[in-house]
């Protein structure tokens, strides 16, 4: 149950969370927020409260985070202010947030079912009325009965099915904005009103079926959008799920105990075994090992850590057992920081105003002002109130935003279907609109420009056969690459692994080693892309690895440049591999060694410079930048959290999907603008005819349906050339 201004202040104060800088924060769930207008209004009003430093509302998760200047803020005052604005709130709980999302989904499904029922059953009574208008035998009394039956079925269905639009329109008007739901709501309500008026007064026309049919079509798109938004909202949760649920804590007497991650505090000693993920950011007390940081930093090779080395939460311990001391709580870890970047980026994207809302901002005041003037002017010029109202409603019906409402969804559905058949999944219609505006493309290296899998360069069959028995005994990524290249075969005996160094064993009675150069006594600068093998007291063999580029990476970059886009590489990998990859594909702008924050900051810099950035990434270190970018894509092999942070996901090993998606998005934008242009031209011709009484409501309904058909047929041309 939502908290109100009558709730005890002490109860609300218990939900304040202290911060390290002496401030405190409060997280609230605001389930009724729907649009960017609601968000800006809430943030503006709450931030104006005394003692509040900042107020940030995440539209995806419907979470309002309020930061107070002191350790004890007026939490009850915030909830009271929200209630006054018409937005009841509760302390944020992920379970409640998910329940609210599920509740919205059930309401949409039920509304869609009611609308579908209404369409089918209203038509049973509408079809005989239409037949009677074309000379069939249907007397006035029978026609009136059919109209009453049509209203008895259609009106309740329309009122119930229209509630999602009515609520959204009311909230939009309270925020002094006009979204697409405003004209839809007004059109539906007035259509029902004039239909009942005509039925009561014995008129010829009723439009109950038109109202329900419009809502049925629009609810299909609304439900699909809800499902896509529900999938996308899990990105930050997926990131946090990479943290280990528990940590193994070492007591003062070295006894072990499992402790929930939330209970781990800085200073706690932890045991980290091979194969386990680092639970919290830690420093090594004893032991050596190799960590797989590829999901965090994008670095392709395992990183060796020893005493005093830093282990970041989410990294995978590959080889040795480590004793570490916790440096931070789970909510202050590297993964949590990336999750906050993702949420921040999702919030900034939610402020994007879609084409339909931009059109509605112009359409709503113009058309409804014309309808009002038609009614007032007709009455003033001697028409009766009934005739003046019929003309005004004819204006609203003939200019009903069916075509306007379908202009973008029809294009988006067509474009999404075409991309899906070509292996690209579009997660939201707004993503296509943003993608069409892109003029700057940022690629991650590992897993995007490259395949993300280390491969041997020019392997020799003889040397492979020598090293393979040891390689098969190791889980090291480079050793696995040797084993894969060699195929199946025997395994070395007496294998032991030296954490952070390599493996040692006996092959055909001879002792051999496979690992780092120093492990084999070789003087080498070393690289993340080399591994050494040798028998005891014998020659040493160097295996060199590289992460292969995608076959069409260079062609994709060239096409993007030809499309007018600037291209650059942001990677967490070392400078050498990044430069080699960038040179190979023809990208001059590149940055190596980037942290997740570095990537997000670069996206912010480009955005402030007026660039519309497409970020293509696959790793955990890319998720924050992807959320902040104007649009984002990820390969199907990417981490699930990165896929959820992306707007589009492409399958296969071809990077050309990026160019194809950009082409289709730009084509979709052209078709949407063409549809808006047609809708404007249609309204410019049809509205004067309705004002002059040349178009009655029945003809207006036919014209309205025809305009929707034209818009839909034009949408089918989207991306047809590729």
Put the structure in a nutshell:
The chain is an alpha+beta fold.
Sequence-ordered SSE layout with sheet pairings:
Layout: H1 9-13, E1 17-18, E2 24-29, H2 36-47, E3 52-58, E4 63-68, H3 75-85, E5 90-91, H4 94-133, H5 140-161, H6 163-174, H7 181-200, H8 208-232, H9 235-241, E6 246-250, E7 256-260, E8 269-272, E9 282-286, E10 289-292, H10 294-297, E11 303-305, E12 310-311, E13 316-317, E14 322-326, H11 334-350, H12 355-380, H13 385-398, H14 402-421, E15 424-426, H15 429-436, E16 440-443, H16 445-449, E17 450-456, H17 461-471, H18 477-486, E18 493-498, E19 502-507, E20 510-515, E21 530-535, E22 540-549, H19 553-562, E23 566-570, H20 575-585, E24 589-591, H21 596-608, E25 613-616, H22 623-628, E26 631-635, H23 640-645, E27 648-650, H24 657-691, H25 697-715
Parallel strand pairs: 16-23, 16-25, 23-24, 25-26, 26-27
Antiparallel strand pairs: 1-2, 2-4, 2-5, 3-4, 6-7, 6-8, 8-14, 9-12, 9-14, 10-11, 10-13, 15-27, 17-22, 18-19, 19-20, 20-21, 21-22
Helix pairs in contact: 4-5, 4-8, 5-7, 5-8, 6-7, 7-8, 7-13, 9-11, 12-13, 12-14, 12-24, 13-24, 13-25, 14-24, 14-25, 15-24, 17-18, 24-25
Which tags fit this structure?
alpha+beta, Calcium-transporting ATPase, cytoplasmic transduction domain A, 7-stranded mixed β-sheet, 6-stranded antiparallel β-sheet, 25 helices
Task: Explain what this protein looks like in three dimensions.
- The chain has 722 residues and is of the alpha+beta class.
- The chain has 5 domains: 84 residues, Alpha-Beta Plaits, CATH 3.30.70.100; 233 residues, no CATH class; 90 residues, Calcium-transporting ATPase, cytoplasmic transduction domain A, CATH 2.70.150; 146 residues, Rossmann fold (3-Layer(aba) Sandwich), CATH 3.40.50.1000; 95 residues, 3-Layer(aba) Sandwich (Calcium-transporting ATPase, cytoplasmic domain N).
- Helix content is 51%, strand content 17%.
- The strands form 5 sheets. Strands 15-27-26-25-16-23-24 form a 7-stranded mixed beta sheet, with helices on both faces.
- Helix 5 packs antiparallel against helix 7 and helix 5 packs parallel to helix 8.
- The N terminus is likely disordered.
């Amino acid at each position: 149950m939502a908290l109100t201004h009558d709730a005890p202040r002490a109860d609300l104060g218990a939900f304040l969370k202290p911060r390290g800088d002496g401030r405190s924060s409060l997280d609230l769930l605001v389930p009724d927020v729907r649009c960017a207008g609601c968000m800006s209004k809430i943030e503006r009003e709450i931030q104006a409260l005394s003692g509040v430093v900042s107020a940030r509302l995440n539209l995806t998760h419907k979470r309002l985070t309020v930061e107070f200047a002191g350790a004890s803020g007026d939490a009850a005052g915030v909830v009271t202010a929200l209630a006054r604005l018409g937005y009841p709130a509760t302390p944020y709980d992920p379970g409640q947030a998910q329940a609210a999302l599920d509740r919205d989904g059930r309401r949409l499904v039920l509304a869609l079912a009611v609308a579908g029922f209404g369409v089918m059953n209203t038509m049973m009574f509408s079809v005989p009325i239409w037949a009677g208008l074309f000379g069939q035998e249907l007397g006035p009394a029978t026609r009136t009965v059919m109209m009453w039956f049509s209203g008895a079925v259609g009106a309740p269905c329309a009122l119930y099915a229209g509630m999602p639009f009515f609520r959204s329109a009311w909230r939009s008007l309270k925020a002094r904005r006009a979204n697409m739901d405003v004209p839809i709501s007004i059109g539906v309500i007035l259509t029902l009103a004039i239909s009942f008026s005509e039925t009561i007064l014995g008129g010829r026309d009723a439009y109950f079926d038109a109202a329900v049919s419009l809502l049925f079509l629009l609810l299909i798109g609304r439900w699909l959008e809800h499902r896509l938004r529900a999938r996308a909202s899990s990105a930050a949760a997926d990131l946090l799920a990479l943290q280990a649920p528990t940590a193994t804590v070492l007591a003062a007497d070295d006894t072990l105990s499992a402790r929930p991650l939330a209970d781990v505090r800085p200073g706690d000693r932890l045991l980290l075994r091979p194969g386990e993920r680092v639970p919290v950011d830690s420093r090594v007390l004893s032991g050596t090992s190799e960590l797989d940081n590829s999901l965090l930093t994008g670095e392709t090779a395992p990183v060796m850590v020893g005493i005093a080395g830093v282990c970041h939460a989410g990294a995978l311990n590959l080889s040795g057992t480590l004793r570490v001391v916790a440096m931070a709580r789970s909510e202050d870890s590297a993964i949590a920081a990336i999750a906050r970047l993702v949420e921040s980026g999702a919030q900034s994207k939610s402020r994007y105003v879609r084409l339909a809302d931009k059109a509605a901002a112009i359409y709503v005041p113009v058309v409804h002002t014309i309808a009002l003037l038609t009614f007032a002017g007709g009455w003033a010029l001697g028409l009766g109130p009934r005739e003046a109202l019929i003309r005004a409603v004819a204006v609203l019906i003939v200019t009903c935003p069916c075509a306007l409402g379908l202009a973008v969804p029809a294009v988006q559905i067509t474009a999404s279907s075409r991309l899906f058949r070509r292996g690209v999944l579009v997660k939201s219609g707004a993503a296509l609109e943003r993608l069409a505006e892109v003029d700057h493309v940022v690629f991650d290296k590992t897993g995007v420009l490259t395949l993300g899998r280390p491969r041997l360069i020019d392997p020799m069959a003889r040397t492979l056969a020598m090293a393979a028995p040891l390689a098969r005994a190791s889980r090291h990524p480079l050793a696995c690459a040797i084993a894969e290249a060699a195929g199946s075969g025997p395994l070395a005996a007496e294998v032991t692994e030296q954490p952070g160094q390599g493996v040692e064993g006996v092959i055909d009675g001879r002792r051999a080693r496979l690992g780092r150069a120093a492990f084999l006594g070789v003087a080498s600068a070393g690289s993340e892309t080399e591994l050494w093998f040798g028998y005891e007291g014998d020659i040493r063999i160097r295996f060199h690895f590289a992460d292969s580029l995608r076959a069409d990476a260079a062609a994709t970059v060239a096409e993007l440049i030809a499309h007018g886009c600037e291209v650059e590489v942001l990677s967490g990998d070392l400078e050498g591999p990044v430069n080699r990859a960038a040179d190979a594909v023809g990208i001059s702008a590149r940055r190596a060694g980037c942290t997740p924050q570095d990537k997000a900051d670069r996206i912010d810099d480009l955005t402030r410079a007026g660039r519309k950035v497409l970020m293509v990434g696959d790793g955990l270190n890319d998720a924050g930048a992807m959320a902040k970018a104007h649009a984002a894509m990820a390969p199907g092999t990417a981490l699930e959290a990165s896929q959820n942070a992306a707007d589009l996901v492409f399958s296969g090993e071809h990077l050309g999907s990026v160019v194809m998606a950009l082409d289709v998005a730009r084509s979709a934008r052209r078709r949407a603008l063409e549809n808006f242009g047609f809708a404007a031209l249609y309204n410019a011709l049809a509205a004067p005819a309705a004002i002059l009484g040349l178009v009655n409501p029945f003809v207006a309904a036919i014209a309205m349906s025809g305009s929707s058909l034209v818009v839909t047929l034009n949408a089918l041309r989207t991306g047809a050339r590729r």
